[in-house]
């Protein structure tokens, strides 16, 4: 697009000790946009999300939010700047109720956004019914909804979603992905990590495929052939 990206990742690297997990990754997210990151196990998708979120320290390269560098900020600072992460595995507080889990996300709240308990219950009506239930009493899909709602409670400009469909039934995945357009309409842009290529192509306006810590293919879903994706996903020998 013509305008400045909301989020720009430039030549980003990351390491776990001596092991290099990211090799010069570039990624752009437009305001209100949705990009998907696909790739096999171990490709570096989670590492990229955690590095953007400030959970992992970046090596070289930059992460720019509205043109300002954020790659040296710690995770709470990144959240305060408007980048919220829905971690893989949901990570709810099991002894707290649905509502209490959501309110934890309001801790770093920016005042003027659209998200609050009522709008999140409108997004996922089952959570309104279950609002007094402890996290442990929820199905996997409901827990995922709480994890998304909790991240939205900070009124983020960017929502990073790590494998939100993992282990869920197709009907539940459909319900969760139905929320994506409504989240985008609220002005929150989204990055999803998704193992399901078909799902990624459906939901995103731009797709990045990673393999062994590198982006091996990127483009609009309509411009990517199945063959090219297959090669970028599994490698060509
Ligand atoms: P998955 O779908 O399995 O989550 P992924 O694409 O998200 O895969 P990452 O979890 O980012 O991949 O892992 C990228 C590489 O970094 C892998 O080789 C993995 O073994 C390695 N790695 C991930 N976490 C750590 C860690 N805490 N310590 C050392 N190596 C790690």
Automatic annotation (TrEMBL):
UniProt keyword S-adenosyl-L-methionine, yes or no: no
Gene3D superfamilies recorded: P-loop containing nucleotide triphosphate hydrolases (3.40.50.300)
Pfam families cross-referenced by the UniProt entry: ABC_tran
An annotated Gene Ontology molecular function: ATP binding
Coiled-coil intervals: none
Keyword Transport: yes
Signal peptide: none
Limits of the ABC transporter domain: 7-237
Keywords of the record: Amino-acid transport, ATP-binding, Nucleotide-binding, Transport
UniProt superkingdom: Bacteria
Family in the record: Belongs to the ABC transporter superfamily.
The protein's name: ABC transporter ATP-binding protein
Organism whose genome encodes this protein: Rhodobacter flavimaris
Taxonomic lineage: Bacteria, Pseudomonadati, Pseudomonadota, Alphaproteobacteria, Rhodobacterales
